[in-house]
Amino acid sequence: MKLNELHDNDGARKSRMRVGRGIGSGKGKTAGSGHKGQKARSGVAIKGFEGGQMPIYRRLPKRGFNALNSKQFEVVNIGRLQKAIDAGVLDAATPITIEVLVEKGLVGKVTDGVRLLAKGAISAKIDIAVTGASKSAIAAVEKAGGKVTVAAAE
User: Is 102 exposed, middle or buried (0-12, 13-18, 19+ CB in 10 A)?
Assistant: First the structure.
């Protein structure tokens, strides 16, 4: 096979149907829209319409709300940090910042900051700077001889 002989398989590309171009085309006159009625017109919007029955989005109760000013923190647990240190991914001797956590793949895309939580156990002495931390996480890190710096969320 040569580059100049490359082509699609038969039937791989189907050409667009040109509608409303005369009776001989097979899609003339009504252009596949049937006869009259709302669905034959442009701008049809009956996706949630259930034939006059009370629609499901009105039958079901609404619960809760989404706060407009809530912050989305990435979460990192102390157990995960200990695993990363044991695996040699993180160096406990150097200060751990949010940039380091992102670079090493311990947290994903950071929008409003990183929050340190106390799931798991930590034995390494670390110096970590995060946006937020739980009281138990701070206590666990300080018990291991480390330090947690909580920066104010921007």
Answer: middle
